[in-house]
């Protein structure tokens, strides 16, 4: 997180583009909110256990779960040079074996 914050800060200093300033601020706010210990110091990472939905019991990696629809909406760009019409979302789904049913057994979740 520190390296990203520095890189975005430097990009802002060079370019003056507020996007980079906003990214640096967001990273530092996240670190202060989620990775700081009340006695001082910082955690290196967050636990992957998270509730799939508010009020539910935490499960491994639930925070990082994306639906097929979300992937397709977030990555609609065409893949340049593809031999057939293909979006970035479709490429990601093919590469990682993502399907509507998911890519792991429900018993593993």
Automatic annotation (TrEMBL):
<dbReference type="InterPro" id="IPR024705">
    <property type="entry name" value="Ssp411"/>
</dbReference>
<dbReference type="InterPro" id="IPR008928">
    <property type="entry name" value="6-hairpin_glycosidase_sf"/>
</dbReference>
<protein>
    <submittedName>
        <fullName>SPATA20 isoform 9</fullName>
    </submittedName>
</protein>
<dbReference type="GO" id="GO:0005975">
    <property type="term" value="P:carbohydrate metabolic process"/>
</dbReference>
